[in-house]
Design brief:
The protein is an alpha/beta fold and about 450 residues long. It contains twelve helices and 20 strands. It has three domains: about 110 residues, Methylthiotransferase, N-terminal domain (Rossmann fold, 3-Layer(aba) Sandwich), CATH 3.40.50.12160; about 230 residues, pyruvate-formate lyase- activating enzyme (Alpha-Beta Horseshoe); about 60 residues, OB fold (Dihydrolipoamide Acetyltransferase, E2P) (Beta Barrel). α11 links the parallel β14 and β15. This is Ribosomal protein uS12 methylthiotransferase RimO.
């Protein structure tokens, strides 16, 4: 049992869990999925198609006839991690197909690893399948190869990511995601709700709604209504909330209409949790980022959200050391954080990313200054987190059980905690009757900087 580390990359997906067992002679594909939850969903869709065609899925290289590496291209450090994973797969297996965000730069990959079998970009599912067919022909057995109704899932059985759209219409100078994944393309609302229904029917207890810009859902299709479901985030949240599972919203851009979601949280229809990427607080820094520069109004919005739903948990991510960030601008960010009192906070040190417009901005911040600012920012965020968690001691909270180790210690999450990126609540006694995926009530008896400890309520 360990406390949640404060320097965990705040965009990372849980490690893919593969539970497939191959029949004798069945062609097998390995999968390495890197990057964010949106990439994990892409991996699930690819594997679902392959599983339907008769392939088995392997969690390692050794037993696989070929390996797919789903890459991340968000930061240069993530690109380096992807190249390393491709190299490892080539060394261990030799037959590697590359897809994902870094696949949008095929020459970058083949320049380092010329022996890969194919390179495809993000959500190019058909091209991935074609590459797999070329490397390992399918051999389905319709009497044996049964596909679960919910498809292949790479998360634990009790929670699942639900991707509602692709792409993004914003032009933030530090980000190349729109270049890799394109403009906003929303899924029809009825298709999203039907997928959610299947997941809940298969035993999923928590739906984590994701996209590049969740608040903008439906804008591109003019909030079309079809088969009784309207493509607007407020309507979709209401529809999903009626299914009886926890519904958690991620990547919610702070548009004014977000305030319409808060009453749904106050009613208990969806979890009182908002993941909003504020990125910074100083208007000049936000302007250089090409983001709305209304930090003061944001504080007013936060106050209004808390007035409507006092139990709301606010998570956000920030960038420190952005080109041109002065000491004064950084201090404004610290002061804003003091006032906003966000519950969960992640922080990146600014990195140049090939193709990003921010690379050409003047006055880049030295590495040692970025590190110092990150340390100071996280120290303040940690103090806020510690105080907020201390206030929960003695309260009874509803939690979902994620894991029970061999010593009987249960790792759980409260409404305020998303998988991997937030904290945990640990139960270290009387867990004999618990199972992974259970939702139970716990009385909190101890708090740390990021995590809680508690006892089951009888």
């Amino acid at each position: 049992m360990s406390q949640n580390p404060p320097n965990l990359r705040p965009d990372i997906a849980p490690k893919a869990q593969i539970r497939d067992v191959a029949r004798p002679g069945q062609p097998t594909i390995g999968m390495v999925s890197l990057g964010c939850p949106k990439a994990l969903v892409d991996s699930e869709r690819i594997l679902t198609r392959l599983r339907a065609e008769g392939y088995a899925i392997s969690p390692d290289y050794a037993g696989a006839d070929a390996v797919i590496v789903n890459t991340c291209g968000f930061l240069d450090s993530a690109k380096a991690e992807s190249l390393e994973a491709i190299g490892e797969a080539l060394n261990e297996n030799g037959r590697v197909i590359v897809t994902g965000c870094l696949g949008a730069e095929p020459e970058y990959i083949t320049g380092q690893h010329p022996n890969v079998l194919a390179v495809t970009g993000p959500h190019q599912y058909e091209q991935v399948l074609d590459a797999v067919h070329g490397a390992v022909p399918p051999s389905p057995d319709p009497f044996v190869d049964l596909l679960p109704a919910s498809g292949v899932k790479l998360t634990p059985r009790h929670y699942s990511y639900l991707k509602i759209s692709e792409g993004c219409n914003h032009k933030c100078k530090f980000c190349i995601i729109p270049d890799m994944r394109g403009k906003l393309v929303s899924r029809p609302a009825h298709a999203v709700v039907r997928e959610a229904e299947k997941l809940v029917e298969s035993g999923v207890k928590e739906l984590l709604v994701i996209s590049q810009d969740t608040s903008a859902y439906g804008v591109d299709i003019k909030h079309a209504e079809d088969r009784g479901h309207r493509a607007h985030i407020t309507d979709l949240a209401r529809d999903l909330g009626s299914l009886g599972a926890w519904v958690r919203l991620h990547y919610v851009y702070p548009y004014p209409h977000v305030r319409n979601l808060i009453p749904l949280m106050a009613e208990g229809l969806i979890l009182p949790y908002l993941d909003i990427p504020f990125q910074h607080a100083h208007p000049e820094t936000l302007k250089r980022m090409a983001r709305p520069a209304a930090a003061a109004k944001t504080l007013d919005e936060i106050a209004a959200w808390r007035d409507t739903c006092p139990d709301i948990t606010l998570r956000s991510t920030f960038i420190v050391g952005y080109p041109g960030e002065t000491d004064e601008e950084f201090q404004t960010l610290l002061d804003w954080l003091d006032e906003a009192q966000l519950d969960r906070v992640g922080c990146f040190q600014y990195e140049n990313v090939a193709g990003a417009r921010s690379n050409d901005l003047p006055d880049h911040v030295p590495a040692e200054v970025k590190q110092d600012r990150w340390d100071r920012f996280m120290e303040k965020a940690q103090a806020i987190s510690e105080a907020k968690l201390a206030a929960k001691v003695g309260k009874t909270l509803e939690v979902i059980v994620d894991d029970i180790d061999e010593d009987g210690i249960a790792t759980c999450r409260t409404w305020a905690d998303a998988p991997e990126i937030d904290g945990n609540l640990f139960i270290d006694e009387n867990t004999d009757g618990l199972s992974v995926g259970d939702i139970v009530k716990v009385e909190v008896d101890e708090a740390g900087e990021y995590d809680l400890w508690g006892a089951l309520k009888s």
